[in-house]
Every structure is written in structure tokens, then in C-alpha cells.
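Incident review: delayed structure delivery

Summary: a single-chain prediction request sat in the queue longer than the usual turnaround. Root cause was a stuck worker, restarted by the on-call engineer. No data loss occurred. The affected request and its eventual output are reproduced below so the record is complete for anyone auditing the incident later.

Affected input:
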Amino acid sequence: MNLFTRWAKREYPLWARLLAVLPAGLLFLILIPWMLLRLGPQIDAALRLPRLYFGLPNLLPGGLLALVGVVFGVWSNAEEIFRARGTPLPVMPTQVLLVRPPFDRTRNPMSFGALTLYLGVAVMVGSIASLGIFALLAALLITYLKRVEERELEARFGQAYLEYKARTPFLIPRI
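Output delivered after worker restart:
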């Protein structure tokens, strides 16, 4: 039995799940957006890339995207922690397959939320490098979801996951 299988069979108490997601939350909600806000423009300046910041035309759509991203991210995390008795972390996976909102709209609402937040921040800052960092993060995350997470969920939940996968979009939510 591999290490992940042993982790998946253990259910952790609520306090442990909340404590475990705190560092991940800081990374996804603070550190990565900060990197897009600060590092992107610095890379642009170093490479002498043009600035794509025009004020309100950046702030309104970027802010709206960021808000949608935060809502999806927090909502889906709460569902995993409180309803599925797990976390987004592979060491404390969910104990049940979530097929209720927002997981009935997309199989990956947390990833949709994170990527929408990061795209919103990149648009708000108007940085070509920030958009590039966003694209790299999106490619890495989608690769992980396809190559690791989907296989693991199929192994854990079997036919129920395959049926859910067949009727629910991968990343972009069904309205």
C-alpha cells in the first residue's frame, strides 16, 4: 500500500484540517498574488517590456476576476473542509466525493478560483511578466490536475468519480 493510500484512509479532526490549510491559504491568497503584483512589474522593467496599465480599464475587470476567484476558492475550500471532511492537501484528502455546489459546476472549483484570482491580479497590475507568470502557474496546475489528481480520485472513488467526470466540466464552470 503506497503512502498516499494510507493518507487517504485516515480522517483528521476539524482542528487539524483547519491548521493544515492555513499555510496553503497564505501561499495561494497572499504570496502568489503578491508575487504577481511586485515581481511581474520588476521583471517588466528589467526586460524593458511595455506597461499594460491604463487605470480603470485594468482595475474593473481585474478586480471582478479577482473577486470571483476568491469566492470560488474560499467556497470550495470550505466545502472540502466541512462537508467532505478533508482538505485540498494530498496528505489530508476528502473522505467523500463532492458533487454539490460548487463542485457540480466544475470538477476543480478551487483551481478555477485560484487561476481566476491570479489572472485578475495580473490584469489589475498591467504587467506582461505577471501574465506570463500566471500562464506558467496555470500550465503547472492543469498538468498536476490531469496527471495526478484525476487518477487519484478515480482510484479512490471508482465508478462514482467516472460518472461525475463525464457530466461535469473540468475547469470552466457551467453557468
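Verification: Residues 128-167 form the longest helix (40 residues).
Action items: add queue-age alerting; document worker restart procedure.
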